[in-house]
Specification:
heterodimer, A: alpha/beta, B: Ubiquitin-like (UB roll), de novo design (two linked rop proteins), 3 domains, 14 helices, 9 strands
């Protein structure tokens, strides 16, 4: 039992575990203290100072986020001294800020704006100390960095270090010149950045945003010559509602489809379809590798690691370039979808692929970069023309004047609109593993995976690294080489956890056969393109929505998806076949550490 | 208020009168708690500027349970107008090192560092020679405490003990959140005593002469003697050891050029005292004890003086916390705006309030102390700020 301390906040006695902050204690009794540099996901910084409170016996104010609660403390959170100080601090932050809120992407979703309004900061008190020659860094496909909106809270720096262990962003210079910058102040497209976008979702202001493409999409929609196709990832449907008036964790799949159709997309399709396809290809690739290793005694790279997350892919390319063979050669569902849109879909629909604009609606910032990787042109065209984040889709729906709350539901279009529950759970950490196991186990044994309702619960949840194992018994003759084999699996999310997994592999100590890695904490539901804020409480609700969606699907295993069966019959012929190899698989490149 | 007549003394710089490390050896024959109590009784306070009672700091560090503890000598002497630590390291390094060793013995540390201002790197050879001698004696008496020199990189804020520790750990020199204090979790997360060069030397002298003798110097409030770095419009610039508790009037009479208009006591982080308050100001009482004293005569523009300070602060702030990073810039821009007529004279009152916010909310002593020089100059020399 943890030691408890008792303190008094605004006249209320609070008991809290030793080591918790004054801020935590205040929350416990429903006292709200404003914060800016504080984020639930990150370590304490204590640098914005807006959470200051009065502590009896001290002649300066105390930062409540950075001060552990102690026995007998007497705290006052809203005295004239505190209010004056907070107002002054807000006025200072505003004086350093580009206050063109009307032109800011984060307007109305900005923590600085909210607090400045709350404290009624009159900007005229202080002179502007905003640097004049700041340029927006738009060099990256994924992330825009606008220092004129930066409040130096260092949430991005801590995110990049603590959650992702990439350290692309760092504090440089000091005093009045202190700023958040990159290695040698290089532009964002030249640094070791995975484009995961976690810095964006942790930024309280508009200093870090995704590069927006919606104007180009509107133009394409308005062009009668163009056939604009959008596919939306599983995580979008469980988070989009947050931007449009629904509570966190609401599934808005049907409304989203209706809205996208109303906006003028010619076809609204489901990335879950290509998630199912990924499972077929990836499960077969894994079985092939296991067979090569166990039967042919070939030197194949095991464990095999998933490649759906483009942030993770770029991470391993930079950090572990000697170990790329462990990556599955499967493209991500987005890129499989793009390649098929301009081949299979075009053929079936009788549309000239050069007239197709293929758009991906993603919970992700790195997907924008992925769409622009030079090798992603296997259809003969730009496989994916543009990636949109959940946030951009939310903005587009708002721009359309659609009353999202009252919208009726509709179904995805066909073809490439049907999916199984296995495709849906791709959105949550552990989902790809679960989907792959549902299919792989069936392929190997002819029986469904031995878990209640196909729910492989050990792979679910927010633990940084999860493990499970499955023993194959009574295998089909074709897979007799796996008889009695206990296969070991691991799931990691957040690149700092990916690093642990990789260090094990480098040391030759990895006990696993197959590993799922997602760049973002929580998996795609916590992606860098998701509505802001994101924290563990929100992640859990989105994850629950994902599994609810799965349970509501009549088909829950990828290989039973009739559109999947059909595409192999009509087009691809067989998993890992020649056409698959050409359209659905890819290669990776070694990148440098700087 | 009690005050002394100004009296020059010779405690700290007195020549070595005993065999090398004799004081250390003698001290180690006594019970540790007795030595700590002696230090507490002596009234010795930190000589870096913050003035925390040295004996108490050591006592708290001694109480910490840890497999490893550290002793760090803060020789980052960065406060503008102070240069006493350099003189100590040149002339009596043995007293400094003895102080560190006594501290290590008391608290149970095995590793120590002298965090040396990079500009003082020409001293390294001489200090290392003395360290060799020390290590030899330490081995003889079985004291397991090794000392190394660590070179700073030139940031003012790294004189703040937690920023100093961060920089030693290879990180950006930024102050930490406190608590925990270094005596609880300092260098590499271990209990660490960080003391100023002069504090260690003074501790050695307390051990040598005893608390009672030491307390004979100074007044009831302020015990002992103190080094003063005297600069500016003074015919007697340099380091002087003075008994604590003298009035600024006596001080100015002794060290001024006869035309003294103001004295900046405690460096730029301290207060600027105008002539009319010399009589009622006791050095070290309500102002800082770092020992930097800058003397200004009537030819000096106090606007320029303040402008210079603020320019320094806005450059030397580490930049992490809002009040210090932006506040220092606002104060600088603000006095420029008043001087040029862009803002009315009343704006100075707003700026004084801002400096109070900085004192209340800044993360470390840097931002917290800007108000000392700012408000004392603006209030006492308001006309000079406006016209």
């Amino acid at each position: 039992m943890a030691e408890l301390v008792k303190l008094n906040i605004d006249g209320i006695d609070v008991q809290i575990e030793k080591g918790q902050s004054i801020l935590d204690a205040a929350k416990k009794v429903n006292i709200r203290i404003p914060t800016l540099c504080h984020h639930e996901d990150l370590c304490v910084a204590g640098n914005c100072r807006v959470c200051v409170v009065e502590q009896e016996g001290r002649n300066t104010l105390t930062p409540s986020c950075a001060t552990p609660a102690e026995e007998g403390m007497v705290i006052k959170t809203s005295t004239p001294k505190v209010r004056r100080a907070r107002k002054d601090l807000m006025a200072l932050l505003v004086s350093e800020h580009n206050t063109q809120c009307t032109t800011c992407y984060r307007s109305t979703n900005c923590e600085l704006q909210d607090l400045a309004a709350e404290y009624n900061v009159d900007n005229n008190i202080y002179l502007s100390v905003l640097k004049e020659d700041l340029e927006i860094d738009k060099s990256s496909w994924s992330i825009e960095k606008d220092d004129s909106k930066c409040i130096r809270c260092q949430r991005c720096v801590r995110t990049c270090a603590e959650l992702q262990h990439v350290n692309a962003l760092a504090v440089t210079e000091r005093g009045r010149d202190m700023k958040i910058s990159t290695f040698m102040h290089l532009p964002m497209n030249e640094i070791v950045c995975t484009n995961c976008g976690q810095c964006i979702t942790h930024c309280p202001t508009g200093a870090l945003t995704e590069r927006r493409y919606y104007d180009e999409i509107w133009e394409a929609i308005d062009d009668p010559e163009k056939h604009v196709v959008i596919n939306t990832a599983p995580s979008v449907r469980v988070a989009l509602g947050e931007m449009l008036g629904f509570p966190v964790g609401t599934r808005v799949t049907g409304k989203m489809v209706t809205a996208l159709k109303k906006m003028g997309f010619d076809s609204v399709l489901d990335t879950d379809f290509s998630a199912d396809l990924t499972i077929i290809e990836e499960a077969n690739e894994l079985l092939q590798r296991l067979k090569d290793a166990l039967v042919h005694k070939k030197d194949v790279a095991l464990p095999m690691i998933t490649s759906c997350s483009p942030g993770w892919v770029k991470f391993i390319e930079h950090m572990y370039p000697e170990h790329l063979a462990h990556l599955s050669s499967c493209k991500s569902p987005q890129q499989m979808f793009g390649a098929l849109t301009k081949t299979y879909y075009a053929e079936k629909k009788g549309i000239d692929p050069s007239k197709i604009i293929s758009v991906a609606g993603m919970p992700c910032a790195a997907k924008k970069y992925e769409a622009n990787r030079p090798e992603m042109r296997d259809s003969g065209y730009h496989d994916v023309d543009a990636g949109l984040t959940t946030r951009e889709i939310g903005h587009m729906i708002k721009q359309s004047g659609i009353n999202f709350l009252e919208l009726e539901d509709s179904n995805f279009d066909s073809i490439m609109g049907e999916s199984s529950g296995a495709g849906v759970i791709f959105g949550a950490t552990g989902g790809v593993m679960e989907a792959a196991l549902r299919t792989a186990y069936f392929v190997i044994t002819g029986r469904p995976v031995p878990f209640d309702n196909l729910n492989i619960t050990p792979v679910r949840g927010l633990k940084g690294i999860k493990e499970t194992s499955v023993k194959f018994e009574n295998c089909l003759p074709e897979y007799s080489f796996l008889e009695g084999v206990e296969a070991k699996f691991a799931i990691a999310h957040g690149l700092i956890n990916a690093r642990q997994i990789m260090d094990q592999i480098v040391a030759g100590e990895s006990p696993y056969h197959f590993i799922e890695i997602m760049a973002c904490p929580g998996g795609c539901i916590g992606g860098g393109g998701q509505p802001i804020p994101t924290n563990d409480e929100i992640r859990k609700k989105r994850i629950k929505a994902i599994y609810d969606e799965d349970m509501n699907k009549p088909i829950r295993m990828s290989h039973e998806n009739p559109e999947i069966i059909k595409i192999y019959e009509d087009f691809l012929q067989k998993p890992l076949g020649e056409k698959s190899h050409h359209l659905l698989h890819t290669k990776y490149r070694k990148r440098k550490r700087y | 208020m009690s005050n002394n007549k100004l009296r020059k003394v010779d405690v700290i710089f007195s020549p070595y009168s005993v065999a090398p490390y004799e004081i250390l050896k003698n001290t180690m024959r006594r019970p540790k708690d007795e030595v700590v109590q002696e230090l507490i009784d002596s009234g010795l306070r930190g000589r870096g500027g913050a003035g925390f009672p040295t004996g108490l700091k050591w006592k708290f560090a001694k109480q910490q349970q840890s497999d490893q503890k550290y002793v760090i000598c803060n020789a980052d002497e960065g406060e503008p107008g102070t240069f006493k630590d350099r003189k100590l390291l040149v002339e009596v390094p043995r007293k400094v090192i003895s102080g560190m060793a006594i501290c290590a013995w008391v608290i149970g540390a095995t590793k120590g560092y002298i965090y040396l201002r990079r500009e003082y790197r020409y001293l390294i050879q001489d200090i290392e020679k003395e360290l060799d001698l020390y290590h030899k004696h330490a081995a003889e008496i079985g004291l397991d405490f090794k000392i190394e020199i660590f070179l700073g990189a030139g940031a003012y804020v790294c004189g703040e003990e937690t920023a100093l520790i961060e920089s030693m750990e290879g990180k950006r020199g930024e102050p930490r959140n406190k608590p925990p204090y270094p005596i609880q979790s300092g260098y590499l997360g271990k209990p660490t005593v960080v003391n100023n060069v002069e504090t260690f030397a003074s501790a050695t002298m307390v051990c040598r002469i005893g608390a009672n003798e030491y307390k004979k110097f100074g007044t009831d409030d302020q015990h002992g003697s103190k080094l003063f770095s005297i600069s500016g419009d003074s015919p007697k610039e340099g380091v002087h050891e003075l008994e604590l508790g003298m009035s600024l009037e006596d001080f100015a009479n002794e060290f001024g050029d006869g035309d003294t208009k103001a004295v900046q006591v405690g460096g730029v982080a301290g207060f600027c005292i105008p002539r009319k308050k010399f009589k009622t100001t006791i050095i070290g009482e309500g102002n800082t004890t770092g020992g930097s004293t800058m003397i200004f005569n009537s030819t000096r523009s106090m606007y320029n003086v303040l402008h210079n300070y603020l320019d320094f602060f806005s450059e030397e702030s580490c930049g992490q916390c809002t009040p210090c990073r932006i506040g220092t810039q606002q104060l600088l821009k603000g006095i420029e705006a008043v001087k040029s007529g862009k803002k009315p004279p009343e704006y100075l009152d707003q700026l004084v309030k801002l400096s109070e916010t900085m004192r209340l909310t800044s993360k470390c002593g840097l931002g917290q102390s800007v108000t000392n020089s700012f408000s004392s100059i603006v209030k006492n020399f308001r006309e000079e700020m406006i016209y």
